[in-house]
Amino acid sequence: MSEPASISAGIAQRYATAIFAIAQDNNDLKGLETGINDLTAALGDSADLRSLIASPLVSRADQEAAITAVAKKMKLNPVLANALGLMAQKRRLFVLPQLLNALRDALAEARGEVTAEVASAKALTKTQIEKLTKTLSEQVGKSVTINATVDESLIGGLVVKVGSKMIDSSIRSKLNSLQNAMKEVG
Q1: How large is the average pLDDT for residues 103-125?
Q2: How many other CB atoms are found less than 10 A from the CB of residue 58?
Q3: Residue 28: which domain range?
Q4: Per UniProt, which keywords does this protein have (predicted)?
Q5: Same domain? 15 vs 94
Q6: Helical residues (DSSP H) of the chain, grouped into ranges
Q7: Residue 98 and residue 173 in one domain
Q8: pLDDT tens for each residue of 2-51
Q9: Distance between CA atoms of 138 and 39, rounded to whole angstroms?
């Protein structure tokens, strides 16, 4: 991870920890989740909002006024709205996408859920996804949500990432291992 990206992730994680703790103390995790989903959709839909949070040309006061108006219009829960205002005052709105991801991860962890990133050579069928979900849930001990993608360069098999663990059973990796073993012999 590059240094600026890790700094941004660190800033986002600190804000996310505080926001999550306050929302949890207020028993408003549902409202927080709704706000996260609404903000994620707004960032995806609005180039103006993305420009607002990233532009160094917008003054702190203007950024704070704009994000406060957006939060009020979207009826975000007070914890999230206040945090956005504080982030604007401190010139930290540029980490908003990372903040939303960190908050989403914190909510999933609080519910005992984990997301598995699964890459396969061909699209998985519904039955395969159900079997994989069941197997991973048994291994991890938590409810697993699968985020499946297709990567034809794998040739066959799967690459599964759950948290910091990765299982690579793809034919591509097996061929690479065989190639490396053959190089060592000759």
Answers
A1: 90
A2: 18
A3: 3-109
A4: ATP synthesis, Cell membrane, CF(1), Hydrogen ion transport, Ion transport, Membrane, Transport
A5: yes
A6: 3-25, 29-45, 47-54, 60-74, 78-89, 96-110, 126-140, 171-185
A7: no
A8: 556 778 888 999 999 999 999 999 999 999 999 999 999 999 999 999 99
A9: 33
